[in-house]
Known about the structure:
This protein has about 260 residues and is α/β, with parallel strands linked by helices. The protein is built from seven helices and seven strands. The protein has one domain: Rossmann fold. The longest helix is centred in the middle third of the chain and has 22 residues, at about 105-130.
Amino acid sequence: MCSGIPISLASFGYMTLEGKVAMVTGASSGIGASTVRKLRQAGVRVAGGARRVDRIEADVALALDVTDEASAAAFVEQGIAELGGLDILFNNAGLALGRYPFSESTEEDERRVLHTNLDGVMRVTRLCLPHIRDAGHILFMGSIAGRQAYENGASYIAAKFGLRGFVYALREDLLGRPIRVTTVDAGLVETEFSVVRFGDDVDKAKAVYEGVDPITPDEVADCIMFALTRPLHVNVDEIVIKALQQSSGARIVRRTDRRSAS
Length: 262
Ligand code: NAP
């Protein structure tokens, strides 16, 4: 539990993660799965959550639907009981649905995208917060979609902008407590993200990365590990990571056609 008692943060050197415990949402694939692997390699015991629990390779694998209040509560309760506390929370679960103009949007898509990327993150953070120990760290998976709009992605863009606002507010509320807060805003990362976005249309998903060398999930996980291992008095607020060939969600210079939208 966080005491809120001022401690001399500068007396801590680079953080070693050995012996710490972490919870990771969206641990069944992509960035979440890579981060779980790297955390465990660094000596962290990890509880991972996702709907496809059979795909989670963590010390504790738990079913989690972040959009469901009871599921999120059970995930946090069981995870903390199994781990014996909490030092690190990585709010990573997220998704986008489709690429279409907002005039074609539906209630159902908006609900799923906002509830997964925003409400779900706030819920899991709120439930974990009372258990996070001094020297703890809360990390978020944002997106460049939360920094600059591009066409045909309104719900996802709104959710990730909202997430960035939430993280700024949380940092204000936690100021003075020995808990660090970090967001990683990524551009194109080759994961199952686009397969989900395009409703299992693998060809459409593949086209997103054509002619580009995208970021890999391991490279995003390296950003998480960087933020975690800084000395305790150093809070890495935000990391923005994009493929060299990408300047925004809308502008990608591809090897074949030089310039096109993602
Ligand atoms: P991914 O391979 O599709 O992984 C998404 C993860 O989120 C999966 O483990 C999935 O697990 C989980 N998830 C989705 N809905 C969930 C729910 N309701 N409850 C619990 N878990 C849920 O994609 P990824 O690229 O690694 O995405 C991870 C994060 O990075 C997301 O927040 C995404 O917005 C962000 N991001 C991705 C990119 C990119 O280009 N790939 C760029 C910027 C930001 P289950 O389906 O098993 O539940």
